[in-house]
Every structure is written in C-alpha cells, then in structure tokens.
Design brief:
The complex is a heterodimer of chains A (352) and B (510). Chain A is an alpha/beta fold. Chain A contains eleven helices and 14 strands. In chain A, the strands form two sheets. An eight-stranded mixed sheet of chain A has the order 1-4-5-3-2-6-7-8, sandwiched between helices. Chain B has 510 residues and is an alpha/beta fold. In chain B, the strands form four sheets. Chain B has an eight-stranded mixed sheet, with helices on both faces. A six-stranded parallel sheet of chain B has the order 3-2-1-4-5-6, with helices on both faces. A two-stranded parallel sheet of chain B has the order 9-18. The chains are: A alpha/beta (352), B alpha/beta (510). At the A-B interface, helix 7, helix 8 and helix 11 of A face strand 17 and helix 10 of B.
C-alpha cells in the first residue's frame, strides 16, 4: 500500500520527550503552564483550548511525524492533543505517557501515550482521563481503516469529528466505501474529514475559479462530458489503481453539475516517477461543439494550466494557477478548522 | 440564457468569503497616505489570500502626475514597506501590479473623468468586468460631493440603463458636524442610492469589534444579565499614547470628539448597547445600532469633560504638549481628551451610566469596553474577609492584547475565609493564533460582495452627529477653559476623575 511517507521519523521517546505517569500528565501540564505564566510579562494568555485532538498511530516511528504536525497545528489551533501510539513492545497493563521537554517558550498541551495494541480498553481509559472538559473531541485516525479496531469502537462514540486519510486506506475506489461507512457513523451525527479530499481542493478551487469568469461560465451549457486523467503504476492490476482522488473529483463534478452525472470518465495514464493516483488533468468537453475547458498539471512552473475554448474551438481564456503547498499539517489544519459536516464532500461521496 | 444569469455550480463549499463578482476598483486619492499605507497592502493581501475575483483590476486617480508603471511601482513599494503584509509572494504581486492603471487629473475636471471613463471601458473589455465598479474615495470629505457629481456627469454612477453595479466607499470623517453631514448625505444621495454608499469606519472591520457581537449573541449566558438589573455601569476607553504624528493641521480642525467619539466611540457604544438584531443582514443590524444612538440622552454639559495635554512623559520619554506640536496654534483650544457620562434612555439601559473617555497621549494605547456588574445583593462574609469586592467586571479588550477578561471573586487558599478578585483572561491571539486580516481587507471584501452590514448608514451618521453637535458648539463657544489641563502620559484631567467619582465610581486602569 502506498501511504504518505513519514520521512526519517523517530519515536518521541527517543527524541527527548519526558516520560510522565499517565495519572500525573494533567497535573504536569498545569505545572508547566504556571511556569509559563510566571515567566511571561504583560497580560498572561489564558490557557484556553478550542478542542481535544486525539490522534491514533499504529507505528512508534509515526509519533515523531505526528509531533511535528502538532507543533504546526498549535500555531493556529489551541488544542489538547492526546496521541495514542500502538507499540507491541509495551506491556498491556502499563501504558506510557510522554510530554514535551521543559520549555517555557513552547508550552503545548500534548501528551503522547504508548500502548500495547491489545490494550484498547486501557488506551481508551487514558484518552478519557486526558480529555479537556467540555470541549469537542476530534479523532485523527492516522492509519488504515478504523473498522474492526477495538480502540476505534471505544473512542468513536466520544468524537464529534473524525479525520482520516483515504490514501492510507489504499487510495483506491474501495477506500471510498470506508469513507462512506464513516459518514454513516452514529446516524450521521459525526463529521468526517478526509485529507485526500483536501488534497484535491486545488483542483476544485481552480475549476470553480475558471467558471467565475463569465466568459467561461457561458461555455457551461456546451459541456456535457468530462475526462479525468490520473497517474497509474503500470505494474498494478486495475483493481489496485489509485483512483480515490479521481473518483472524488468525478463525484464532486456530478453532484455540482448534474449534466455530467454518469458522463465523467476516469482515464489512467501510465507515468513513471509520479506517485500513482495523482491527478494529471480535468477536461470538460462537448459532444455538440468544440467548446472545451482543460485544466492540466504543469511541472515548470509547477501548477495547473487552464485553457478555455469556445464552440468554434477558439481560445477564449488562458490561465495559470501556481501550485499551493499541501503538507500534512496544512491538510489537517483545514480539516479541523471547521467543526461541521461537509455536505459537498458527503454529496460527492454519495455520487461517486 | 445570458451568461451573466448563469450561476457557477462549482463554487458551493469553496471559499465562501471570496468575492466572485467581476469588478474594477477605482481609488480616488491614489497617491495619498491612506492608499499607500492601507489600501494597496489590503488589496495585495486579498490577492495573496485568493479572495479577489479573477475579473478584477485597480485604477488609481489623483492629482499627482503618474504613469501606470509608476503607480505599479507605488504598489510594490507600499507592499514592501507595509507592516500589514503577511506573506510576500512576488508572483501575486506581479499579477496584481499588471492589473493596476492610473489616471491623473483634478477632481473637478470633467475631461479627467472622461479619461477615467475611457480607461474603465477599456478595462471592461480587457478584464470582462461587466461594468461593475467600486469607487473608493480616499480624499478629504470636502471632495466627496464634487467627485460623486463628476462621476454622475461622466455616466459612471450606474444609471438604470447601465449594466453592472456601482458602489462608492467613503472614508470617515463623514462631515464635521451635523449640518455638514446632512449636506454631504444630500449631495451624495442626489446621485446615488443609499444601497450604493459604503461609509467606512475601519473600527467595524476589526475582528475583536465583531467578536463583541459574537460574545453577546452567541453565548446564552450573557444576554439575560446584559441590562439595568445586573449592569452597574459601562466604561468605554479609547486611549492613544501617541500624539499628533505630524497631523497637527488635521487635528486642529478635528479634535477628540470628531476624531474618536463621534465615530469609534459611538460604534463601540452601539455594539455593546444594541438589542439583538433579528438577523445579521445589513438592514436589521444597522437598524438596531441606530436605535441605540438615537436613544442616548442629549449630553448634559456638566457631564462632559474636555482636556488638552501638556508636556509630560510617555513610556519614560519626554514628549511635548499639544500646543508645542508642529502646525498647532500655541493658544489652541482644541480638546485632545474627553470624558462623557451618557445614558441610553430605553427599557434595557435606563439608569445605567455609560462612561466614555477618549484621548491622546494617555499612558498607553488601549481600547476596551468594561461592563461593571452590580455587587452581589448580600455578602455573607465579614468585611475583614474581603480584600476587594468591586463586583464582577467583564472587560472586552479591542486593542492591543485583544481578548476578554472576567473579574470574579475567589477564596484565597488557606484555613481562613478570605476573598479576593481574580481575573479569568481569554486572549484572542493565544487561542486562535491566526494573524488578523486588516480591517480594510475585510471591509473592501464586504463591499465587493455587496454586504453593507459593517458600514455606516446615513441615519446612523446623522444620529451620532446629532448627539455630539451641541457639545461641539458649546465647547467652541466657551473659551474659558484653561488648557493644557493634563500632562501627557496621564489618564486625563482631574475633572474626569471628579465626573465619575461623583457617582461613587472610579475609572478603570486598563
């Protein structure tokens, strides 16, 4: 399975994080906060939080990456972060907690908890103990499908929003089934965010931006089909093609513009050296005229080039959208920024 | 079906804040200080945040001779020098600069406006802006009427048979008294509809000012106690530590009432005093704001204190007195400080004093609203157990250190029952961490979207002038005051202390 790379990450307990007894983690954070207040000048900042972010990772090395992401998230979101790290080397009845090293300039409400994968109840109890009161709980499930995982079953009833990455579910069309099941959790009372959906936002944004232009919008009545080109690894069988992103765009196009329903074709394009599943192009076409709108990924300069042609095939607009950064922290930031369900995402999933 | 009637079906759920209607922005006073310090950086920030429509361009208009390229250079310079530009991106800057044009001419010169009309028509073709224009009038108020008349004569104010929408943004001060404000409104409304006029007071574009509304109307716990039954008094402070910063001539014509009280002060008072609007659309919101101003009892001259600063120390540095500032008369009687005791005569606020003080060369720059709640009706503690019991205070800090503080009583840890006040402090920046958009970004964007909620309406402006006009006239007529009467770096003259002490209260030390 192709999952986002974690780079040269190391577990937090080998990166200077301090061990702390689980039952003393809360008190230790409070003590740290007092030190921050005592050393600050002027009006002290409140220890105000906006949400609990519970993160789950299934590999110790991933904890280092999560720690980096949380540092960036803390710049814009005041969160209580509890990260559960599954590690088979830990005794089942002895979860271990870690907090950042002492640094009054960088107070953070983060606790990393290392648990045995078989100790789901123990892990859930730690989460419950460390949640900041009265604040919504967001679960960032940074692993493959959560279904069938005891820890997920125990934590899911608490959460208001689940953040996943369907790329970690295999990035195939089947991964979208998992997303659909997630949106049906608790009769739809839980919001679901998919980092993969956020990953295709530049395509959605640039398509929408093209149609903000009245000259391009006027072509809309011509368009009745669409083609989405995505990268495939030629060594993989069709069923393993990373179609999740292309399928999400297709679902989105069809739910926004019903004339395209059933008329969006996903076209695999063999590509070496490009991560499978990456979108190459989105092409709006007409069966009755030469009108077209093409948005094509461009490498130099990096971005999306757009070209609109009228019914006679003459170019009416040419635009270029520079590539925007898409780090995991930015994708997560966008996912937790809005507590509500995303009706457009859910409609696209339902459409696909 | 015409293209303009189509709706972009792909826009839903994406950047709802983005202005998508094609438009040209014309800045009158394009070579001026406000344009360089605020407007051009704001437009750049909007472009950088991808909040501008694709079909967009800027046209500068001013008396100074300048080419398009020189105006583009001015844009680059203002972005480079602005402290408000968050992320500098040359590609964005290049793209915005390419879309900048300049027309030079006098504001009363018909031929200059004909040239402007020609440039706008060319840009309509070039950028497909469909005749939509925003005219940002960043000039002295004395030119508003002339410019609007010229726009009308040049066919640029959006006659019914002209496609596209035309909106005009005008900067405060909107008039210098009630008569001039009325005259200005009449002059503008001769050529424009009220829904085309956007009177900007940048205070309303501040996140923390808007947060007052969220605090009041999104939290169920405050509204039930937000009235005369629970509120003892309200203190509004708009203090600046700076002096005139080279604006002596301006301030000599203005003074603290026109500069702060009539606009910012009244904005803050109306937000804290208004009834909950049914909706936050422009009409409902502004109706409620105007009602509060109209309900303020005429100011009793005995309950108004004026002051002018003399030499003193601010932040440890010696600073000159007002009369020693450049371009200020050595015998000036212009007030740089005012303290008012106001009453809002309605059911909610009957009998609750609103103390409003504003001034220059105060010990620090701070804007805040403090809601002083009444003391608990009965204290079952011995007096010796209470170190301070001043009632709860909810302080809304607008700037700096934006946030909210609730002062409440707490038991001092220990075997005996001792009580003292503690402050629960919520810091806006520490909690949300994001860098605020400048008020101008928010307000320009609102104008592009046709949302007048955060702009002043003619009746609101006139209501505020109606309130302060008699005070201005009385103070202008009465030259008996001895100025200066407070030292720079202090919280104003002794009379201001006496004004509030008469009621058994004291000014807060913000």
């Amino acid at each position: 399975m192709s999952v986002p790379e974690d780079g040269a990450a190391t577990p937090v307990w080998t990166a200077g994080f301090s061990p702390v007894k689980v039952e003393q983690a809360e008190a230790t954070l409070t003590e740290r906060w007092r030190e921050v207040v005592a050393s600050s000048s002027g009006t002290p900042s409140a220890r105000a939080l906006t949400l609990n972010l519970v993160t789950y990772v299934d590999r110790p090395t991933a904890s280092g990456e999560v720690s980096k992401v949380l540092t960036q998230i803390a710049e814009t979101h005041s969160v209580r972060a509890v990260t559960i790290i599954e590690d088979a080397t830990v005794q089942e009845d002895a979860p271990q907690a870690f907090i950042r090293p002492d640094d009054v300039d960088e107070f953070s409400e983060e606790v990393f908890v290392r648990v045995n994968p078989r100790a789901a109840q123990s892990a859930a109890s730690v989460v419950l103990a460390l949640l900041a009161a009265d604040l919504p709980v967001y679960l960032w499930w940074r692993s493959d499908t959560p279904f069938g995982r005891p820890l997920f079953r125990l934590i899911a009833p608490l959460v208001k929003k689940i953040v996943v990455d369907s790329m970690r579910f295999g990035d195939t069309t089947a991964a979208l089934d998992t997303l659909r099941r997630l949106t049906e959790q608790r009769a739809g009372h839980v919001a679901v965010a998919d980092l993969n959906w956020k990953r295709i936002k530049p395509w959605r944004r640039e398509i929408a931006a093209c149609f903000d232009d009245p000259a391009v919008l006027a072509l809309l009545r011509e368009f009745d089909k669409c083609r989405i080109e995505y990268a495939v690894d030629t060594g993989q069988p069709d069923a393993q093609h990373k179609t999740a992103r292309a399928a999400l765009i297709a679902g989105w196009l069809a739910c926004c513009f019903s004339r395209l329903r059933g008329r969006v074709r996903l076209e695999p394009v063999p590509a070496d050296g490009v991560r499978a599943g990456r979108i190459f192009a989105v092409l709006f076409q007409s069966t009755k005229s030469r009108a077209a709108l093409s948005l094509t990924r461009q490498e130099e300069p990096r971005g999306i080039a757009a070209e609109a042609r009228d019914a006679r095939g003459e170019i009416v607009r040419v635009r270029f959208f520079p590539e925007s950064q898409q780090t995991e922290a930015q994708l997560l930031h966008r996912s937790i920024d809005d507590p509500a369900r995303d009706p457009v995402f859910e409609a696209a999933l339902a459409e696909e | 079906m015409a293209a303009t009637q189509l709706v972009n079906p792909f826009r839903e759920g994406l950047r709802e804040d983005r202005a998508t209607t094609p438009v040209q922005i014309v800045i009158f006073g394009a070579s001026g200080d406000l344009t360089n310090r605020k407007l051009l950086p704001a437009l750049y920030n909007l472009a950088q945040a991808d909040l501008l429509p694709e079909n967009f361009c800027v046209v500068g208009f001013a008396r100074s001779e300048m080419t398009d390229d020189q105006f583009r250079d001015a844009l680059r310079k203002s972005v480079a020098e602005s402290g408000e530009v968050r992320v500098r991106d040359e590609r964005v800057l290049d793209e915005l600069a390419k879309r900048c044009y300049y027309v030079s001419g006098m504001f009363d010169d018909k031929s200059a406006f004909a040239r402007l009309a020609k440039v706008l028509a060319e840009n309509d073709q070039r950028y497909n802006t469909a005749g939509n224009r925003i005219f940002y009038i960043s000039t002295p108020a004395s030119l508003f009427g002339i410019i609007v008349e010229q726009l009308h004569d040049a066919g640029l104010t959006g006659a019914p048979d002209t496609p596209g929408s035309v909106r005009i943004i005008v900067e405060k001060p909107f008039g210098r008294d009630l008569a001039s404000a009325k005259a200005l409104n009449t002059e503008m409304l001769a050529y424009l509809r009220e829904d085309q006029i956007y009177r900007i007071d940048h205070y309303l574009g501040k996140e923390t000012v808007q947060n007052i509304l969220v605090l009041r109307f999104a939290n169920g716990i405050f509204e039930p106690i937000w009235d005369r039954n629970y509120v003892d008094s309200v203190q509004i402070t708009v203090a600046e530590s700076l002096g005139l910063e080279g604006r002596g001539s301006f301030y000599e014509e203005t003074g603290v009432i026109r500069d702060i009280v009539q606009n910012h002060g009244m904005q803050l008072l109306s937000l804290v005093g208004m009834e909950p609007p049914t909706t936050f659309d422009a009409r409902d919101f502004r109706d409620e704001k105007v009602r509060v101003i109209e309900a303020i009892r005429p100011i009793d001259l005995k309950e108004a204190v004026r002051g002018q600063y003399g030499p003193g120390y601010v932040n440890g540095q010696p600073v000159p007195g007002y009369r020693e500032e450049p371009n200020v008369s050595p015998s000036s009687m212009v007030p740089t400080f005012s303290a008012l005791r106001l009453f809002v005569d309605n059911w909610r606020w009957a009998g609750v004093p609103f103390y409003l003080r504003a001034g220059k060369r105060m010990p620090k720059r701070v804007t805040e609203i403090a809601i002083q709640f009444k003391e608990a009706p009965h204290l079952p503690f011995r007096k010796s157990q209470i170190e301070q019991a001043e009632g709860n205070v909810l302080a809304l800090r607008i700037q700096p250190d934006e946030g909210v503080t609730l002062k409440l009583e707490a038991k001092v840890p220990g075997p005996s029952m001792r009580i003292r006040s503690v402050a629960m402090d919520f810091s806006y920046g520490a909690t949300f961490g994001t860098e605020d958009a400048s008020p101008y970004e928010r307000l320009i964007l609102d104008c592009m979207k046709g949302d007048q909620t955060l702009f002043d309406r003619a009746d609101g402006v006139e209501a505020a002038w109606s309130l302060v006009d008699p005070l201005l006239q009385a103070w202008d007529a009465d030259k008996s005051m001895t100025f200066p009467n407070y030292a720079a770096g202090t919280w104003g003259p002794k009379q201001a202390e006496e004004l509030i002490r008469r009621d058994g209260r004291a000014w807060r030390l913000p």
